[in-house]
Amino acid sequence: MKAITMDRQQCRHASAVAREDNWKTLRFRNLLLASVSAGALLVAASGAAYGQATVSNGCFEVQDGLVVCTGDLSDGVEVDGNGEDVTVNVSFIDGDIAPANNVNGIKVVNDDADIIINSDTGRFQIVTVGRHANGIEATIEDADDNIKIDHTGNIIAGGNGVAATIDGDGNIDVIYAGNIKAAGDGIDAEVHDDGDIKITYSGNINAGDDGIDATVDDDGN
């Protein structure tokens, strides 16, 4: 496991390739994600209904701000937090997340509120086609908030493998375990004001542009 914390000067064009053959350290985190998702599904089965987030097929808001996506997610995952903190858990999928051309695999947007994405594609992967189609994309507009992405699995992307953007102040934390093959950047993280970026990854990154490109416009690490 290799961790990268980038200061302002280092955040322009960072590229990295890492290999990690021992996946045993991931088991506890994966089991925890599975238990959280399974418990949330039980809440959904009880008939409780919530209306904070806007979600795509295969996703359910099981309580305010907690979205579970499972089963057939082949058309992609799209969630809008609508201005409230949102956590999106993606697990127990039936096949590849492989949406139509120029559609992101997992896309979560919010307005002045936090985003957390916990995703595990298991033996499947995220596959996107098109230069603007990212594997995982998280965007916060008008923000003084944070993004955290914790993903296990492989991504093949026509755009960036992982893209996280905060249009304002905030922090980005990306934890990635798996391989990325992307026409754009492997992992792209941008804070358009003050903030910190931390990227932790294990696996191989094969990118047409930068392996890792992290940018803080003003003050930050």
Task: Kindly describe this structure.
- The structure is a single chain.
- This protein is mainly beta and 221 residues long.
- The protein is built from 1 helix and 17 strands.
Outline the fold blueprint.
Layout: E1 2-5, H1 27-45, E2 54-55, E3 59-63, E4 66-71, E5 77-80, E6 86-93, E7 106-111, E8 115-127, E9 136-144, E10 147-157, E11 162-169, E12 172-177, E13 180-182, E14 187-191, E15 197-202, E16 205-207, E17 212-216
Parallel strand pairs: 4-6, 5-7, 6-8, 7-9, 8-10, 9-11, 10-12, 10-13, 11-14, 12-15, 13-16, 14-17
Antiparallel strand pairs: 1-15, 2-5, 3-4
How is the biggest beta sheet arranged?
A: 10 strands, mixed
Shape: globular
- Count of helices? 1
Strand content: over 45%
SSE order, one letter for each helix or strand: EHEEEEEEEEEEEEEEEE
Radius of gyration: 16 Å
Q: What's the total count of β strands?
A: 17
* Ends distance: 20 Å
- Kindly name the structural category: mainly beta
Contiguous uncertain segments of 5+ residues: 1-29, 31-49
Q: Helicity, in percent?
A: under 10%
Question: Multimeric state of these chains?
Answer: single chain
Mean pLDDT: 83
Name its key features:
17 strands; mainly beta; about 220 residues; single chain
